[in-house]
Design goal:
The complex is a heterodimer.
Chain A lengths: L1 H38 L5 H5 L15 H28 L9 H14 L3 H15 L5 H25 L3 H9 L4 H29 L3 H4 L19 H9 L4 H33 L5
Chain B lengths: L5 E12 L2 E12 L3 E5 L6 H8 L9 E9 L2 E2 L8 H7 E4 L10 H11 L5 H14 L3 H4 L12 H14 L4 E5 L7 H14 L4 E5 L3 H7 L2 E6 L2 E7 H6 L4 H8 L4
Parallel strand pairs in B: 3-8, 3-9, 6-7, 7-8
Antiparallel strand pairs in B: 1-2, 1-4, 4-5, 9-10
Helix pairs in contact in B: 3-4, 3-6, 4-6, 6-7
Classes of the chains: A mainly alpha, B alpha/beta.
C-alpha cells in the first residue's frame, strides 16, 4: 500500500519533470519556427551581404549587413571589455583573496542587484556619460553600455565556477610552493575553463540580443561604421524598427533579421565550445 | 631519540579555529629519514598538525597559531627571512584523495619544476621519467604522457601525485591518510614506495589505520582531542604504551 503510493509519487514527479522540460524546449522551437516562417519570404543572400537601399523604414531593398556588422562589433567589443574586467574580479572573489570578507560579500551583493537592473537603465546611464564626455551616439557608447549590462552576468557566472574548484586541488598547488597568483592562473583558470566559457557565452548572448541599452548609446544608421565614433546599427534595433513599420514586406524583414541574430548566437556558442574543447579535456572531476 | 637527528621539531604549538582549540601545546620531534605516523581518533588534530608542518594551515580562515615549528633548525613561522613558498617546496604533500592538476601527466610532474624555474626541455623530460619511476608509474604511462591526468585510475593518480611532489625535490614527504581513498593493491603500492623512499626522505603520515601505522612507522605520535598523549619509537608505543589512553586506543577501545 505504502509502496504503491511511493511509486505513484515517483511517476507523478517524473511526469512533471518531463512536461516542464518539453514545455521549455517546445517554446524555444516555437520561437525559432515562428521566426523562420514569418521571415522566410524576406530571407535572401542580399539580406546578409548588402546594406539597406533607400532607407530601412520604407525599403524592401538591400539587406541588413549594417546591423549584422554592427551587432558583431558591439557584442564582441562589449564581451571582450567585460571579460577583461570580469575575470580579475571573479578571481579576486576567491576565498584566498576577499571571498569571505565583508567586502567580498558586499561585492557579490552589488552584482546580484546590478544583474536585475533593466537594460534601459544602463542605456540611460551610458547616455549621461556620453553627454558628459560630449560624444554622440556611436559604437563606443554602445560598447560601454553593453559592457555594463554584461559585467554582472559574467562575474556572477564566473564567481560560481571559480568557487567550485576543489580546495584540495589548490592546496596541492600551494604545497608545491606555488604562489596564489600561480595557482590561480595555472590551476584555477584551467580547471574552471568550461564554466568560465559558459559565463562568457551567457554574457555575449545577453549583450548581442539587447536593444534597450544601445537605443540611445549606439544609435542607428544604414551605413557601416568606420570608427569607434560612428553611429552603428544593430540586429535587435533592426528588428524593433522594421517591425514597427506599417508595411508587411518590411515586417517580414524584421523576422528575417531575428532569425539571423539567432543563427549568429548559435554559431558563436557552438564555435567557442569546439575551439576550447582541446583545453577542457584536462578538467579534473 | 638521542641517536636520531630531529629533522622537524614542533615546540609548544597551539592552534585554534575561532573558539575551538585544535592543538594544545604540542611538542614533538620528527626524526630524519624515518617514517613517523601521527595516529589518533578522528577530530584529534592529526591533519591540523600535518598542515602546520608546511604552513598550509595559513590558508584556513580564522586560524590562530602560536609556538614554533623548526625545520632544519629554522623556525618556519617566526623567522624573519622565511619565504613560505620555500618552506612548502621542502615538504612534498599527498592529500587524502588524489587531486591531479587539470593538465597532462607530463605537465603534472613538471608543474613544480617549472614554477621553480626549470625550463630546459631535456631536463624536464629526464625528470618526468625519473620521478614517475620513483612513484612506480612510469611503465604504465610512458606511452601516454600527454594524455589528461584526470583519466588515470585513483591509484595511478595518487602515484602521479607522489611523483609530482618528489619532482620538486623536497626533503620531507607529508601524507594525509594517503591510502584511504585507494583500493588495497594501490595502497600497498604506495606503502612499498614509502618504505623505499625513507632512505632519502623524512616521511610523516597521518593515518587512522593502526595496522598501517604498525607496518610502516618507525616513530609514532599519538594525539587525543588536540593533546599529544605519547610519542616515541614505534615498537615502544605499540608494545609498551606508557599512557592508559594510548593503551586503550591501541586495543581499539577508543576510536
Amino acid at each position: 500500500m505504502v509502496l504503491n503510493r511511493r511509486k505513484l509519487e515517483a511517476s507523478f514527479f517524473k511526469g512533471l519533470m518531463i512536461a516542464s522540460t518539453l514545455a521549455v524546449v517546445g517554446s524555444l522551437f516555437a520561437v525559432f519556427f515562428a521566426v523562420i516562417l514569418k521571415g522566410a519570404p524576406a530571407l535572401s543572400l542580399s539580406m546578409i551581404t548588402e546594406v539597406p537601399k533607400g532607407g530601412y523604414y520604407l525599403g524592401g531593398e538591400g539587406g541588413i549587413l549594417n546591423a549584422i556588422v554592427g551587432s558583431l562589433y558591439l557584442g564582441i567589443g562589449a564581451t571582450a571589455l567585460a571579460l577583461l574586467m570580469a575575470l580579475p574580479v571573479a578571481l579576486f572573489l576567491q576565498r584566498e583573496y576577499i571571498g569571505n570578507s565583508r567586502f567580498g560579500r558586499l561585492t557579490r551583493l552589488s552584482f546580484d542587484v546590478l544583474w536585475g537592473v533593466p537594460s534601459i537603465v544602463y542605456g540611460a546611464f551610458g547616455f549621461i556619460i556620453m553627454l558628459y564626455l560630449g560624444i554622440r551616439a556611436c559604437l563606443l557608447g554602445g560598447i560601454i553600455a553593453l559592457t555594463l549590462l554584461e559585467l554582472p552576468i559574467m562575474i556572477r557566472a564566473m564567481d560560481e565556477v571559480v568557487g567550485m574548484v576543489p580546495r584540495e586541488l589548490k592546496e596541492a598547488s600551494y604545497a608545491m610552493g606555488a604562489t596564489k597568483l600561480e595557482t590561480t592562473i595555472k590551476v584555477v583558470c584551467r580547471q574552471a575553463l568550461p564554466g568560465l566559457l559558459t559565463g562568457i557565452i551567457l554574457a555575449f548572448g545577453r549583450g548581442i540580443g539587447d536593444a534597450a541599452s544601445i537605443l540611445f548609446t549606439a544609435g542607428y544608421t544604414d551605413r557601416l561604421p568606420h570608427s569607434l565614433f560612428d553611429p552603428v546599427a544593430s540586429l535587435p534595433l533592426a528588428v524593433f524598427f522594421q517591425i514597427g513599420t506599417p508595411f508587411p514586406e518590411v515586417q517580414q524583414r524584421a523576422y528575417a533579421s531575428a532569425f539571423i541574430l539567432l543563427i549568429l548566437v548559435l554559431i558563436i556558442s557552438v564555435g567557442s565550445r569546439v575551439l576550447t574543447r582541446r583545453f577542457t579535456k584536462y578538467v579534473v572531476r | 631519540m638521542d641517536i636520531l637527528k630531529a629533522h622537524i621539531s614542533v615546540q609548544n604549538l597551539n592552534v585554534s579555529y575561532g573558539e575551538h582549540q585544535a592543538l594544545k601545546n604540542i611538542t614533538a620531534d620528527i626524526p630524519e629519514k624515518q617514517i613517523t605516523a601521527i595516529i589518533g581518533p578522528s577530530g584529534c588534530g592529526k591533519t591540523t598538525l600535518l598542515k602546520c608542518l608546511n604552513r598550509l594551515i595559513d590558508l584556513t580562515d580564522g586560524v590562530k597559531l602560536s609556538g614554533q615549528v623548526l625545520v632544519d633548525g629554522v623556525d618556519i613561522y617566526n623567522d624573519k627571512d622565511i619565504d613560505v613558498t620555500c618552506v612548502r617546496k621542502k615538504m612534498g604533500m599527498l592529500s587524502q584523495k588524489p587531486f591531479p592538476l587539470p593538465m597532462s601527466i607530463y605537465d603534472n610532474v613538471t608543474y613544480g619544476l617549472r614554477l621553480h624555474g626549470t625550463r630546459d626541455r631535456k631536463k624536464l623530460d629526464a625528470a618526468v621519467e625519473r620521478y614517475l619511476r620513483m612513484g612506480g608509474l612510469w611503465e604504465e604511462v610512458k606511452n601516454r604522457l600527454e594524455s589528461p591526468a584526470a583519466k588515470l585510475s585513483a591509484g595511478q593518480q595518487q602515484r602521479l601525485c607522489l611523483a609530482r611532489s618528489l619532482a620538486v625535490e623536497p626533503e620531507a614527504l607529508l601524507g594525509d591518510e594517503p591510502t584511504s581513498a585507494l583500493d588495497p593493491v594501490s595502497a600497498q603500492h604506495i606503502e612499498k614506495t614509502f618504505r623505499e623512499l625513507k632512505k632519502n626522505y623524512t616521511i610523516v603520515i597521518v593515518t587512522h589505520i593502526l595496522r598501517q601505522a604498525r607496518r610502516l612507522a618507525d616513530y609514532v605520535i599519538f594525539l587525543y582531542l588536540g593533546e599529544l598523549i605519547e610519542c616515541g619509537p614505534a615498537e615502544n608505543v605499540f608494545n609498551y604504551p606508557k599512557e592508559s589512553k594510548t593503551q586503550a586506543y591501541i586495543k581499539g577501545e577508543i576510536s
